[in-house]
Amino acid sequence: MRAVGFDVIGGPEVLKPVDLPAPVPGPGQLLVRVAYAGVNHDEMRHRLGDFGTPRRTTVPGFEVSGEVAAVGPGVTGLAVGEQVAAYLPDGGGYAEYALAPADFAFPLDGISLRDGGGAGLTLTAAYGILAGAARLTAGDTVLIHAAAGGIGSAAAQIARALGAAAVYGTVGSPAKAEYAKRFGYDAVHPRDAFAEAVREVDVVLDPIGGPTRLASLPLLAPFGRLALYGEAARHPDLTLPLLPLWQNNRSLVGYHIADLARRAPTAVRSHALAALSLLASGAIRLDVTSELPLDRAADAHEVLAAGRGTGKVLLRVA
Question: What does the pLDDT look like over 234-251, one tens digit per residue?
């Protein structure tokens, strides 16, 4: 089968087209004939060695859409030929065929394969960060960093669907601000000036880290939650005193879908199905801004690494 993989860590140039045997589904797994593979920051971390040094050719890709090509022993509820979106905790999505745990494969009833290409991880994570980690409730006010990205643009819509009273965003450029405004933000601010522009909020979503994270803490209202779900800027970890958290009634919460998939897979499935229901109903949309052929995966990584990405970037496989 055609695939794109890497056998050394490094920049986007280490991603190379390869020919590999198609995998065979084992117990509890299914084989997906991939139509689209989502491109995410976690795949860049994979390529940079954050998940370890590859011992063989490694195929990245944590979310796909396509048709079920085969099912392994013990799999029920999904049939060959059915269209699904899938989260792939072990990667493998940049390929013609990918193995998915049956628990993380979701029927695309009323949803196109193209939209499904960003549902397995992007929409699932956006919903999980808000409803699971941040415990968003109706009437909350929300600040979303990286407002123009795949998760940011989805999270703004999901927050509204869950009853948020106001949703604000931050971005790194004026062009991204114009793009983000189409997703229902009340205001979108430059990332280097948001602390002066935003008053107290109940929830902050932060995939950036570093100074952005520090500047977000004082904005939390009583019982406010700062939800961390990435380190896109790759700053060194922060050392934070704990006393100001309890003295000011503030909380730090984390979201990591890979850990959740290992320890609470039913939560991942619940979040995915809820997000897909919103997508199917038209309450939210997934904005695919770039669609590249599989063999141009390195170009897709370059776009994200340079901070030029908006919305959802997909690789077209089938």
Answer: 888 999 999 999 999 999
Yes or no: say if 236 and 257 are a contact pair by the CB < 8 Å rule. Answer: no
DSSP secondary structure code for residue 224 in this structure: E
- Rounded to whole angstroms, the Cα distance separating 83 from 97 reads 14
- Give CA–CA dist 112/279, Å, rounded: 10
* CB proximity list for 16: less than 8 A, separation 6 or greater: 4, 5, 6
What are the b/e assignments for 31-48, b being 16+ CB within 10 Å? bbbbbbbbbbbbbbbbbe
* Pair of tokens at residue 294: 């599989």
Whether the Cβ atoms of residue 286 and residue 278 lie closer than 8 Å to each other = no
Sign for the pseudo-dihedral over CA of 239, 169, 106, 268: positive
Helix axes 265-281, 150-161, angle to 10 degrees: 80
Contact 143, 169 (CB under 8 A): yes
User: What pLDDT digit, counting tens, does each position of 113-134 carry?
Assistant: 999 999 999 999 999 999 999 9
CB 258 within 8 A of CB 104: no
Dihedral (CA of 253, 125, 273, 71) sign = negative
Residue 212 predicted with pLDDT over 90:
yes
Three-state secondary structure of 299-310: HHHHHHHCCCCC
The answer, as to whether pTM is greater than 0.90, is: yes
